[in-house]
Design a protein that fits this description.
The structure is a homodimer. Chain A is of the alpha+beta class. Chain A has 11 helices and 15 strands.
Chain lengths: 397, 397
């Protein structure tokens, strides 16, 4: 279990009554000093109030605290929603004794409902006074909605002769096909780094991780990936990609984001399998990505995964409507090491039986080789189960 | 109940053992003379053998018979699949005593399996000798796969002083988001018409019907809409769109296609509701269509329909990722006559209660007004149920 300790950061989580139940629903991330910060937000044209506020406050590349609530997304809430986001942030800032514009808020839950500020008035003082370096795992639980497990990751690297820690906390199980970021992901590190480089490295990491997962093809109004750096590790400041240690930190950040992204897919609503869809032999990365994404989002492919049915016909049918150029009679398809299709034709009963064994695993890779070029791409997805429908037919009731 | 009588046409259906069970699985449509014919086929890059053969044989605009099998799609079957399609068509042609290139074959079912020609050798003579003007409804049952009801439609119009009949038979319940046509649809009429005009009118009708339905966003390798005209009604030949009666026939064909398309959606795999997604106030028809299609294909929207949850937040979130230009604070959303969202904000509990009553109906319309232009478009879809997953997790087993 990750303890999520990182120099300069403290966490807390309380039951604020936002869910109307006896559950943790309000969390705080606090840095002892102004942290260098970078973020990527949803590209959905409909953006939640906390996202709009965050975009505004991140412009100067510094924040000190984030308050996160579950249960209500504060999206499609108009001017009242913006005013509520500002008011909630101000309560936290006042209680923490820091400037208002150093506080972000973040929300996840139902769209179209207003926050009840009374919950915040009551809960914020206790939230602030409970700050603790040990409370990261508790925060990870507080921000869960339909998630069944908390998602955390932790890395230790060396930059020069100092230890640098990077920890991450994420949530998300439905409305997941980020165009830009994912539901909510908070990364804390003690590295000393410039805001510009942090933003650049975060974007690269998100592109290879959160932007490559899809649970249901829906992208949210609240997607946020935020990284805060306290600078307390003592390394020489990473102020450009060429700085000693920048490459190590970049790799670590990318690796941590992918770790969290895969935790999100594996905990996809109702999901029982983590499936990597890899397309090789495409003419371009864009085509490889489009092909992999179309397969990953096909309800027929995903229900076949749930049924443990090595139904490659659905995979090739999805490929055929992906808009990608290929010759049907050159396509090979593998389930892990098992080749099921060669040059567009099925390889028969024995291959199917072996592939069925692969499908019984909790995690496997479907490799589609178009033999049409040198580019490749992959998307991480999950199966589509009866429980997905149950969860989403009942979500608000 | 439609009797599907139309001058010049006879039908039959038999149990050929293709399904391996005691079920109707092979059907025949026969015209007493060469019929003028037009068709639209799937735009999926992966095309089944019978589609490729049909595209070839439709070039001269005349056919006389179509033999249709259920259970095996004859898709992704390579040269052997093409040879089987040709051989099956030849058996039917020989038994009927007509030229081989006047016979089409059509298949629906599992992708990647070869047809067993022995079934055809045994069954075709009986299929041919059973031809009967009364057997249209039986044919409609024979071509069903996961369909739960047969889909037929029938219209009588007057052109000049003669009666003209148009009948249609369709199937399809999964892998339905045609880019071009839908699973299988066969339309028979006794109108006298030129092949060019018939093709033109069919394309128009398909664009407004089969191309506007989506059950699961997957489009098939076998989609076919075919119309055959015996010319035996006795009307003056419709040889151009300006010919007297052409407009009446065009309207009838469009209406019949929409009727069949809606029957397909209403019988979508596991579907309990027929939902029309209408987008108004868009800048262009393309944008209206893209917005409606993104909403119609969202698993979160469709599971909310199944749960009878008036969850407009999911609708506006899908809208936000559709790529369509709009201002969030201008959007209105109605469920039938009930306005739930005005200028991007929910209208509260009473509107939600009234909308919930609408969602309990078997069929309703979601209207999204972008107030951003004068164009509109609609897509017909269904809900996403537990049974959809069950059906598709078990389809081959």
């Amino acid at each position: 279990m990750n303890n999520l300790h990182v120099n300069g950061f403290r966490f807390s989580a309380v039951k604020a009554g936002i869910r109307g139940k006896d559950r943790l629903d309000l969390g705080l991330i606090y840095c002892e000093k102004e942290a260098v910060a970078a973020a990527v937000f949803t590209k959905n044209r409909v953006k939640a109030a906390p996202v709009l506020l965050g975009m505004e406050r991140l412009k100067n590349g510094r924040i000190q605290a984030v308050m996160i609530n579950a249960s209500i997304a504060n999206a499609c809430t108009g001017e009242e929603g913006m005013a509520n986001a500002r008011a909630a942030a101000k309560m936290a800032a006042d209680s923490l004794g820091i400037a208002e514009d150093l506080v972000l808020v973040s929300s996840t839950g139902v769209i179209g409902q207003q926050l009840d500020l009374a919950c915040f008035v009551k809960a914020v003082p206790g939230l602030v006074s409970a700050r603790d370096a040990d409370a990261g795992p508790k925060l990870a639980r507080a921000i869960m909605t339909t998630d069944t497990v908390e998602k955390t990751a932790q890395r230790l690297i060396r930059i020069g002769d100092v230890d640098v820690t990077v920890v991450g906390i994420a949530k998300g199980a439905g409305m997941i096909m980020p165009n830009m970021a994912t539901m909510l992901c908070f990364i804390m590190t003690d590295v000393e780094i410039s805001a510009d480089l942090l933003q650049e490295l975060l974007q690269k990491a998100v592109h290879k991780s959160f932007n490559r997962i899809s649970i249901d093809g829906d992208s949210s109004t609240n997607d946020t990936a935020l990284v805060m750096a306290s600078g307390m590790a003592g390394n020489a400041c990473l102020d450009s990609a060429a700085a000693p240690g920048a490459a190590v930190f970049e790799k670590c950040l990318a690796d941590l984001c992918l770790d969290l992204a895969l935790q999100i897919v594996a905990d996809g609503e109702g999901a029982s399998k983590l499936v990597t869809i890899k397309v090789e032999g495409a003419r371009s990365e864009e085509e490889a990505d489009a092909a992999a994404r179309t397969i990953a989002n096909s309800p027929l492919v995903k229900t076949a995964f749930f049924g443990q049915d090595a139904n490659w016909g659905r995979i090739i049918a999805a490929l055929g409507r992906s808009g990608v150029d290929f010759a049907q009679n050159r396509v090979d398809i593998f389930f892990d090491q098992v080749k099921m299709v060669q040059d567009g034709l099925g390889l028969g009963i024995q291959a199917e039986q072996e592939a069925t064994l692969v499908l019984r695993k909790k995690a496997f890779t479907v490799l589609v080789d178009l033999k049409n070029g040198a580019a490749s791409g992959e998307i991480y997805t999950c199966d589509f189960s009866i429980d997905y429908v149950k969860i989403n037919a009942d979500y608000r009731s």
